[in-house]
Structures are given as C-alpha cells and as structure tokens.
Amino acid sequence: MAAIMSAILEELVEAGRQLVRDNLVTGAGGNISCRDDAGMWISPSGFSFMDASETDYPCVDIASGEIVKGTRRPSSEVLMHLWIYRVRPDVTAIIHTHPKMTIALTAAGHTLKPMYADYYVYLGSKVPHLPYVTVTTPELAKAVEAEFTDPKVVGCVLRNHGAITVGRSIKEAVFRTAAVEEQAFIQWHAAAVGTPTFLSDEELKKLDELGSEVYRRALLAKMKA
Ligand SMILES: [Zn+2]
C-alpha cells in the first residue's frame, strides 16, 4: 500500500487528533471523513483518532458504497457520511463528534441559538436539532440525510448523541463543530447566571451584510486545517 494515498487525507488525520486535543471526542468516539477523486476517506471503526494513521483510513466509493482502498472496517456511521456526500456536491468534509456541553444542554431540552457572532457566521440560520435515533443505524443516517438535503444546512445537533458539521474544506467543518460547542458553553453559562440574551433577527441580518464576514466565510472554505 502506498505510504500516503491522498494529500487531503493527511490533513483529515491531523484534524481528528486536534478534535481529541480540543476535548470534542473521547476514546474511539466520533467519526470524520473527506472526499477527493478516489472517493470518501473515512476514519476506521474502533480507533481513537490519536491511534489511527493514514493507512488505517479506508476509502469508500461514494456511488456504490464499496470499499476501494484500505483494509480496516469504516466507521460504523459510514452511511451517515455517504448519504450526505450523495446529496451535497458542495461538501468536502464531514465531522461528527460527541461534544459534551452540546449534548448536555440539548438533552435538557434547550435549542442552540446564536448569542454571539461566530456561531451564526459559521453555522448559518438553520441548525436542525434531531431527536435521538439509535446510533449507527440506517434510520439515523436517513434522518441526517433528510436535514442536509437543504443546502443551507451545514451543521446539525443530534440530541443525546452529538453534532455533525460539513464544510467545503476540512478546516471549515472543524470550525463549525468548535462553534457549536462554544455556543453550547456560552449558552449554558449565560443561563446559569442570568437570563440569556440572544442575537435578534435584525442583528443576524446585519452580520449577513458585513463585508468582513463574507470575506471570512469565503477564506475559510479554501483554508487547510
Ligand atoms: Zn456518534
């Protein structure tokens, strides 16, 4: 097997390790993928991102779902990734994690809403919160796919489970996951000490019109992790 089969894969492996360092996943939790001409490179089942190297990441043909490279078994959430790529030609990377503040807050019935600019700038106006569906099942993959069919959706909360974000670059998908967890952290703490104030629709509209944010979003789409 070739040492490194894809430049973007190398970036994905490092992004996975950063997710562990940033406390967004624990143990072998979470799964990540990216696509290039060869297909979808996805993290292997049962590995911590810290332990999995490039050669452990199998490559799956997006149209057929067949493994075309690698010997490891793909993540058990392989269908969730595959089906998003099929309906979203704009997506290059998918990050699925189990961020603890996001899980805690949304499992308690709260819905994440923008309280600061970054969450809105990175995630946009529609972040669906899906009720719990058994992990790794085709039913979960179907429910997630249905949300991402809307091209406006770039992130989704899975109640009692975690978060899933997509990006035109790996870095964009990672930043979106970080912004979801940061929003949960801020919302949690604001609610603990007082009555949270959310950004109004009018304020969100102003963010859409800011040239600097348009620039920031466009740059991120091209950036390497
Ligand atoms: Zn999961």
Quick structural summary:
Helices cover 43% and strands 14% of the residues. The protein has helices at 7-21, 78-87, 100-107, 117-123, 138-148, 170-193, 201-209, 211-222, and strands spanning 31-36, 39-42, 59-60, 67-69, 93-97, 129-130, 155-158, 162-167. It has an eight-stranded mixed sheet, with helices on both faces.
What order do the helices and strands come in, and which of them pair?
Blueprint lengths: L6 H15 L9 E6 L2 E4 L16 E2 L6 E3 L8 H10 L5 E5 L2 H8 L9 H7 L5 E2 L7 H11 L6 E4 L3 E6 L2 H24 L7 H9 L1 H12 L3
Parallel strand pairs: 6-7
Antiparallel strand pairs: 1-2, 1-5, 2-3, 3-4, 5-8, 7-8
Helix pairs in contact: 2-5, 3-6, 4-6
The structure holds zinc ion.
Zinc ion (ZN) binds next to loops.
Could you characterize the architecture of this molecule?
- With 225 residues, the protein is α+β, with helices and mostly antiparallel strands.
- The chain has 8 helices and 8 strands, in the order H-E-E-E-E-H-E-H-H-E-H-E-E-H-H-H.
- The protein has helices at residues 7-21, 78-87, 100-107, 117-123, 138-148, 170-193, 201-209, 211-222; strands spanning 31-36, 39-42, 59-60, 67-69, 93-97, 129-130, 155-158, 162-167.
- The longest helix is centred in the C-terminal third of the chain and has 24 residues, at 170-193.
- It starts with 6 loop residues before the first helix and ends with a helix.
- The mean pLDDT is 93.
- It binds zinc ion (ZN).
